[in-house]
Amino acid sequence: MTGDESAIHKIQPFLETFFDGKTCLSGVSPDTAVLRGAVYQAEILSGDLDGDWVGAFDITSLTRGIETAGGLFQAIIPRNTLVPTRKFLNVTTIHDKQTNMMFNIYVGERAFVKDNTLLGSFELDYLEEGPAGQVVVEVVCELDTNARLEIRATALGGGNMAVWNAGEGFDERHMTEDLKKMLVDAERYREEEEVERWRYDGKVADGDEFGIVVVPRKEEVEQKRR
Q1: What is the C-alpha R_g of the chain?
Q2: Which residues cross the membrane (predicted)?
Q3: How wide is the angle at C-alpha 115 spanned by C-alphas 113 and 117, nearest 5°?
């Protein structure tokens, strides 16, 4: 226990009773306690901590993802994912000779992007011309401990790369009431939207010039074969 000694003496008996008579460790300076906690947290995040340790972690309250053909919302970082995290997704072109891809980034729990929140957009251009489905782009989605989101899109086989960073623009930790409504609505319309999603999956909407669809990653294909 750290802090004001007079306060410690008042609450110490209650804590020791609550924890079945275990003696509270006191006399530790607040600066030392903060320093030790920071060191433990750094070791946890870097994966260097050996043994058991109970720490405080953030998890995502909402799903992060991108728009795919038909206006569908494709999840990349699901809700309740431990932060920090890094997720991968492969996408491909939907048109012959398509040389650009537009990535619209959303957060939410609904099946269609129109019902979720747009975070931003970026474009990957100068892709190699070819038939639809030939060019494959790897999407890497990273969320750090400060809730900063970064998305990188790289054409596999030595192509171009584009990067988008959300910076400090969105933090779900400050939207408690909106979050509750979003989760309630997602559950209310889940069955209806699953049917609609099946109808629209992979369909190209009018004006969807730079659209994309998801393709399985190599490890996903190998796992299904086992």
Answers
A1: 23
A2: none
A3: 75
Task: Specify the 3-state DSSP secondary structure of 20.
Answer: coil
Residue ranges matching CATH 2.60.34.10 in the chain? 63-225
pLDDT at 146: 79
Q: Per the confidence metrics, is the pTM higher than 0.85?
A: no
pLDDT, tens only, 189-217: 999 999 988 887 766 666 677 789 999 88
Beta strands in 3-100 (DSSP E): 58-59, 63-68, 72-77, 82-83, 85-93
Distance CA 167, CA 126 (A): 26
pLDDT, tens only, 95-117: 999 999 999 999 999 999 999 99
> Is a pLDDT exceeding 80 seen at residue 125?
yes
**Is residue 99 packed enough to be buried (19+ CB in 10 Å), middle (13-18) or exposed (0-12)?**
middle
Instruction: Report how far residue 158's alpha carbon sits from residue 192's, in angstroms, rounded to the nearest whole number.
Output: 41
Q: Are 159 and 128 in contact (CB under 8 A)?
A: yes
Q: What is the dihedral sign for C-alpha 194, 195, 198, 203?
A: negative
Q: What are phi and psi of 176, to 5 degrees?
A: -60, -50
Query: Which residues, listed in sequence order, are joined to residue 149 by a DSSP beta bridge?
Result: 143
Rounded to 5 degrees, what angle do the CA atoms 7, 12, 17 make? 150
For residue 154, list its beta bridge partners.
138, 161
pLDDT tens readout for residues 145-161 = 878 899 999 999 877 89
